[in-house]
């Protein structure tokens, strides 16, 4: 343990946080006389920010202290006020009244902070210990102020250990002492220092020697040259893995088409190839083509940047942005399944120690094919896992040394050139035949192949860049001859890297392997978009792109892999510690367990396994915000007395916010058969409020609004089933947990711009969602009961997504009725001619009033779709009812129209003063007038 005198450099980290805002480096530590574990306490946020917040305090150059993380800035004074409220409204914190305390102003000692940090983190993993999630939430803050990469690596590793504990323990946050005055600001300071201290002291634990008894297939294999399954060489398939690195574009696709397409192995199965694709200059339409040809698409980084030392020194966070984000990017732009992307090869074959493998383990990647071996080539090294220590030579250090279960290494068994010098890739060999001599090149390739084929039959890798074989036609011809030989051998098979891993996990002899079926995959379509986004922010270059999705707003790059213009908004990590500590992360959906009517995996599959032609095409019209005398005439004009082809009244959902709403008119809409749903009491700005809203915030805004509407509009409380948060700003798990706890059935706040064709159907949150997250934070926990009604985006005239019709940027001329009608129909037909996912027409009434041409086109659209006998305008609740119990179109058409219990309303005009802003509000309702204007915290105006 370090002494007080050793702690100066650790205190400087804390001072870096505070001195950035000219706030004094002081903290009050409250020590317990019983256990000597320090609990930090600021008697109020005034100790830090002045009294009250925002007011300078004598002797302090007052500025707001900002807590940083990767995506947003949070005012600490405002945060501590919210924390005060959060603490005062939570009753489950343990309280030890026996603890006596005394206060003193002190310097930090490492002994103190280690003790305090371990107390918070529950490092000994006892069940009663404190939530590591709270501690973990502070790592992004300290990372923002650290420049030493090795220290940041230690912090990343330490934070992952905390995550593992939080997942494995049912931890609760708790404090000793007087919780009524406990402040997180002091705790923040303590943890920042202690996190650094622990990270400095943490020793990397090396993986143990492999235990052959414990390490068994299919999930574990020791590194070695022994053939999996104990097979003899003659009974072992000789796998050949051909790989190409870097971007795929019009310059190299011709080569791939000429030499790889329509090639088959002797067992009749298509030959496999793996493409390790980097992002820059890649044409994603061609990636989709390669995938649909049955080839494997793997990852080779977004930036592929130089120098090579960048990759050697890359942190966990660097590699997450390069690799894990590229998996999302590749799936999105090429429209290929994310779960088909299994492998990684780092640029320049530059290893990054444990970090790249830890990223792979954390983000569902199966294997790495970066690590060459030059010593275990004859016999050759077979693939293995990193559960135990590797015996592979480390050619391009640093190599992994830790135990990282679940990740496979596919060793790059080196070739030998004409002088016996090892070379990991074909085009990296130094002493080679004349590049114009096809015969010598063929012999050179076959010599290296036979080392495997006549040896222990470790997979033979032909690792190359397309530029090499296209530059030298003789080399290309020799390569084609080699593939012809392999494809005609009865015991050799050209397969992709993932297929090798699959066989190693479950090794079978050649005779059994040849009888197995060929690999299967689900082809995907590609709606080609040609894009020229603005010059890239990182280098000012203008890129031209082709992809299978809508064009990005900016060139996709590190930190913004989908090229979104909007900056994502962060949930306060401190509140995550409070609200989400007990919510388990959702697992991948289990279709055997997740069954209708109460559970559905997120998917574009039509419920009930129906064909599109047998599926009703639902259209959901929605309007947001207040209902009052200014907009009711529009609703009466375009919606009332309108029926569909089945003779039933059309449905519409109104997401009603409270301010300026006339509840007698809400009652009128309900009695017309329209659905009333929730849109918050305050609809307050800024959007940051909703992004970081606590459980209590959401409950007061949404659940209290359910009581408010039912009371003042005199409609049945149980008829209010849905929610849409203001600004479509999701609040992570919080809003869905509130819904689950208080009986709300569905949310319609979550747009998708990726899953449009085919469209995403409604689903539950029992399991992990596949939906893209355009507006962070999205839910990540398993939260049974609530349904997600995905908002399938429109596409504007240039193909950009827009969640609501009135938010599209490139639109027809506002007075061109015909152009707007075609615009509406074109978006509708994407669903109608596709998988018939519900088509949402989401709009604000003011837009139709402001632009009569748009309103006329809207009415024309309604006239068209209500005349179609397989299209039904229904509310969101009716969509869910069908999804829970899907029936074919012919049965649905025979169902009776929806019924509901009408309610009376004797409109009562009221004039009330609001306590929150002193404004005078006039509105009418179906009950007696409240004492004050209803608002957050007092929804009935009592």
UniProtKB/TrEMBL annotation:
| InterPro entries on file | CE4 (IPR052740), Glyco_hydro/deAcase_b/a-brl (IPR011330), NODB_dom (IPR002509)
Q: Name one Pfam family in it.
A: Polysacc_deac_1
Gene Ontology MF annotations = hydrolase activity, acting on carbon-nitrogen (but not peptide) bonds
UniProt-listed GO biological process terms: carbohydrate metabolic process
Q: Which residues form the NodB homology domain?
A: 236-366, 615-746
Output the PANTHER family linked to this UniProt entry.
Answer: CHITIN DEACETYLASE-LIKE 9, ISOFORM A, PTHR45985
Query: What is the protein name stated in its UniProt record?
Result: NodB homology domain-containing protein
Q: What is the lineage of its organism?
A: Eukaryota, Metazoa, Ecdysozoa, Arthropoda, Hexapoda
